[in-house]
Amino acid sequence: MTVNVLRAAFAFLALHIHVADTSTLIRPTDTLYVHPDEVASFTCMVSWGNNRMHSIFWGRSGDGEVWTIIAECWGIDGTCVVVDKFDDTYSTYSISSRHDYFQLDVMKAALDDDGHFDCWLYSDEVPASPHARLIVLDPINHIVITCYEYDKLVTVKENIPRVFTCESMCGNPAATLSWKIGDRDVTEYSHESSKESDEDSRQYDTGSTLLYAYNSTDDQKYLECSGFQHEELKVQSFRIILNVEHAPVIQGIVVNSWGADHMVEVECLASANPASITYYWKSSDGQTEEEGSKFWTVEDVEQDGQVTITCGASNRVGMTSWTETLHRRYSPEIEEIAVLGWSEDHQVEVECVADANPSDIVYSWKSDDGQTGGNSRTWQLTDTDQDNLVTVTCNASNVEGMTSHTEVLHGRSAPVIQEIAVLSWGEDHVVDVECVASARPDDITYAWRSAGQAGGNTRIWRVEDVDRDGVVTVTCMASNVVGMAVKTDTLYKKYAPIIQEIILNSWSTDHMAEVECVAMAHPANITYSWSSIDGQIGGDSKTWTVEDVERNDQVTVTCEASNSEGTTSMTETLHNLYPPIIHEIAVLSWDDDHVVKVECIATANPNNITYAWRSDNQAGGNTRIWKVEDVDKDGRVLVTCKAANEEGETVAMEEILREYAPVVHEVTVLSWMGNMVEVECHASANPDNITYTWISGGNQTGSGKVWLVEDVEGVGYVSLACEAENVIGSSQLMTTVYNPELNPSNDTKASSVPVSAVSISTTLVLLSLLAIFILLWRRAVKQKREIVRSHLSEAATTESDDRLIESTEENNPTAPSQPMTNASYDSDEEPVIY
User: Fold this and answer.
1) Cis (ω within 30 of 0) for the bond into 441?
2) Is 320:247 a contact under the CB 8 Å cutoff?
3) 8-state DSSP, 73
4) What are the b/e assignments for 341-354, b being 16+ CB within 10 Å?
5) How many CB atoms within 10 Å of residue 290?
6) If we measure between CA atoms, which residue out of 407, 215, 394, 442 comes closest to residue 320?
7) Residue 43: how many CB atoms within 10 A of its CB?
8) DSSP 3-state assignment of 364?
9) DSSP assignment of 522-586, as one string?
10) Residue 26 and residue 30: Cα distance in Å, rounded?
11) Read out DSSP for 173-241?
12) What pLDDT band is residue 680 in, cutting at 50, 70 and 90?
């Protein structure tokens, strides 16, 4: 009863004392599809501002404009009720709440529940669209193409637009209608509309009108209308069969026979609806036939194996014509067997050149030495005797017959130059070269050129290295009766490897160095071998990965390079040079006079590092360790270190924070629900990974920054202690927290409204409320005194904890001091609330 009186009083105050409210709602806006008798749920979430006295209303509207209130919920305690009703219209609704969430359930959905749902604060008007939408699924009763029976034949004229109307009856939601001819969608040529059903206003009828001109490709296909409502409802459809009357469609003219007397029998392939077709014929040389049949005999007047014919076909709908040039059908005629290639390994590729109609020719091959080939226009065989002669037979056939042709083939090829080889390179810079070539026939004629020098018909030629640089460019020309080949090559004097340098490619953080031996030689196929001064061995590669065993950023390696002309070696010491790498800025000490000693930890090669420091307006010189002042005395310093050597420089910036044990500042009440109190411990520390431990007067314990503790005796307050700890140390705060609804200090603020603004009736209500409040408060004070006395009796047991706190403060003298607790007590006096 007390809760109801308080609710009425606060509601009355909220109406008469106009305080701006900042509460907001997260409203439902989704659309739910449910089957009849299923449950539909909508959720409304409130973010309370400075006034929790509002009521939350749930409403329903059939059209989104006229709303009926379904339920009411009170923010002060979260209770909800369905509003009083004079009939059973809303008997299926249920309302529930949890914290700031309010849920409306439609327990057994029916078509009457279909509509809009929303929630709003009592002080607001019904919110504007969008609203939550509930659609109760009800499949359409039937679908039909008006005036026609299912699967019946309907006659239409080709290319003349025809209208069909499809209707779906009594469904929710309204069906979307689509049209198909066979597998082709033609919905874009339709117009659709929906309305409330004449049989039941809770259901909908949909109509769709299709206006479309049909053609011969639509003949004997289904015209289908389908109605889609929702993915959980079956799609219903209705169809008819199109009988499209159209003029003849000619697919082509085919030759049935071509006689030796050059008489050709042809056939016109056509289809029509109706199928009674009249044909007429005409040829390009003037032959004609009127009102004939689909067959016609025409003469190949020019006896060239082709005729051009036009076929006309008509019925009572229209006429079509088709012109085509027809060719005589004959068996293959082989013109020749051609040689496509004759390789060095005596492989011969041949081709059977043939013509036929139809041109799908089947080939078979054989040679005089028993080799055979399959169905291919070309064939590869072997010159078994290697005498540049093969005898080949080609068989070519089609549906008209087969032809055979045998031919003796000869291997003839122009010269192919394989290389220009160096035979010798004299000390007098005279070079003997050879042009290595092959041909059939092999009576090859040679010619030479090189930088103004020329040679005659000889396979070997002597040329002078004019520039004395070990390089000559030579051109050889080789020809026979078949053709000619030309090859130009640059020739080099052979010499042992010359190592120019050993270079360092990379130096990894795990002290592995990749080195490369840079060498030149001719021939250039160089073999490498490696070794290091500390005994490591490498294989045959111009690069090698060697370990810096002594970790001194240097390795001494030997590269040996060799080819067919000789061997050369080189030894070199390589150094890993890199600019400074700053690993960290370390704090060495932090004095009580706020002076911080820091160290810039860096590595480099060479190690002659120069340092420079910056912090606020302070600067330091070339020293690895520097003293900087905490100017703001806030335990926070921003330091920059620059480290440089001859390879480069690196800059690192770091904010240094002084570490200290946690300091507990206060304990606050987050919420008070019945006897359950949610409290939060506020502490600061560095590092800030704080572990929290709780204990209350009722011997309840807990952990975490936020704790849910029970007011065991229901007295409206709880005495507790919060301990905060990190790796540096810990601190503790003991305090008592009060139920804010029973704390008199809150009433002082609430009663500060001017009396002149309140009516006499309001004053009477306030006085009644104040009398009840004082009675409850005095009862709580009496209980608090008993708890205080029990605390004082336990002072001896808490002395050890006080020493622990004092010890923590001595170990961390620079941490912020402990704040005052929320309340202090005297054993014979009222509690003093700060």
Assistant:
1) yes
2) yes
3) E
4) ebeeebebebbbeb
5) 10
6) 215
7) 15
8) strand
9) ES---EEEEEETTS-EE-SSSEEEEE-TT-SSEEEEEEEEEETTEEEEEEEEEE--EEEEEEEEE
10) 12
11) SPPEEEEEETTEE-GGGEEEEEEE-SS-TTSEEEEEEEEEE--GGGTT-EEEEEEE--TTS--EEEEEE
12) very high
Give the Å distances, CA to CA, from 513 to 509, 607, 627: 9, 19, 39
pLDDT tens track for 749-802:
322 223 222 333 333 434 444 445 445 545 554 554 454 344 433 433 333 334
Residue with structure tokens 């003949």? 219
pTM of the predicted protein model:
0.42
Strand runs labelled E in 343-450:
347-357, 362-367, 372-373, 378-382, 389-398, 401-410, 413-425, 430-440, 445-450
Say which DSSP state 387 is in. S
Tokens of 128: 């504007």
Structure tokens of 187?
């919905």
**pLDDT tens, residue by residue, 371-384:** 998 889 999 998 87
Q: Which residues pair with 394 in a beta bridge?
A: 365, 405
Residue 418 CB partners (closer than 8 Å, separation 6+): 436, 437, 438
CA pair distance 513, 504, nearest whole angstrom: 7
Query: Residue 778, Cβ neighbours under 10 Å: how many?
Result: 9
Q: Which two tokens stand for residue 258?
A: 């071509």
**What's the token pair of residue 403?**
């032809």
Comparing CA positions, the residue from 617, 618, 614, 659 lying closest to residue 636 is: 659
Phi, psi dihedrals of residue 685, rounded to the nearest 5°:
-165, 165
